[in-house]
């Protein structure tokens, strides 16, 4: 099992920035993929960005060029730098990790972007 704790969410104005952090503990040696998901009220959960243990990254089109995912394998940390935030980015952001698929999830951190 892997335990995840997110932090860094908050309220920002459109155009602002936030950096989300995710600390992993437990069986971290099993982690091959790390990702950030988000879920807005009344909407489905969606993958925002992912990074593999090898460093390959993937981004959802709406956040490309604005968000950057990074990981520190030695420290078992995952980060999501969010720049040029838009109101439509408002959601609960979840950190997730797994070996082949995402199997461990954090509790989420709220990100609210005002107009």
Description:
With 115 residues, the protein is mostly beta strands. The protein is 0% helix and 57% strand. Strands 2, 4, 5, 6, 9, 10 and 11 form a 7-stranded mixed β-sheet that branches. A 4-stranded antiparallel β-sheet has the order 1-3-8-7, with no helix packed on it. A hairpin with a 3-residue loop joins β9 (91-98) and β10. It is globular and about 40 Å long.
Q: Could you state the order of secondary-structure elements as H and E?
A: EEEEEEEEEEE
Estimated radius of gyration: 13 Å
| Spatial shape | globular
Write down how many β-strands occur, each being a DSSP E stretch of 2 or more residues.
11
Poorly predicted regions: none
Query: Can you give the mean pLDDT?
Result: 96
Write the layout of secondary structure elements.
Blueprint: E1 2-7, E2 10-13, E3 18-26, E4 33-39, E5 46-52, E6 57-59, E7 67-72, E8 77-82, E9 91-98, E10 102-105, E11 109-114
Parallel strand pairs: 2-11
Antiparallel strand pairs: 1-3, 3-8, 4-5, 4-9, 5-6, 7-8, 9-10, 9-11
């Amino acid at each position: 099992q892997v335990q995840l704790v997110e932090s860094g969410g908050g309220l920002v104005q459109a155009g602002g920035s936030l950096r989300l952090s995710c600390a992993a503990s437990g069986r971290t040696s099993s982690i091959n993929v790390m990702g950030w998901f988000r879920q807005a009220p009344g909407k489905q959960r969606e993958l925002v960005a992912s990074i593999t243990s090898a460093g390959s990254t993937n981004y959802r089109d709406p956040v490309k060029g604005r968000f950057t995912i990074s990981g520190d394998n030695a420290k078992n940390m995952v980060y999501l730098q969010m720049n040029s935030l838009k109101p439509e980015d408002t959601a609960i952001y979840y950190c997730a990790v797994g070996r082949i698929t995402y199997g461990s999830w954090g509790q989420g951190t709220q990100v609210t972007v005002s107009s």
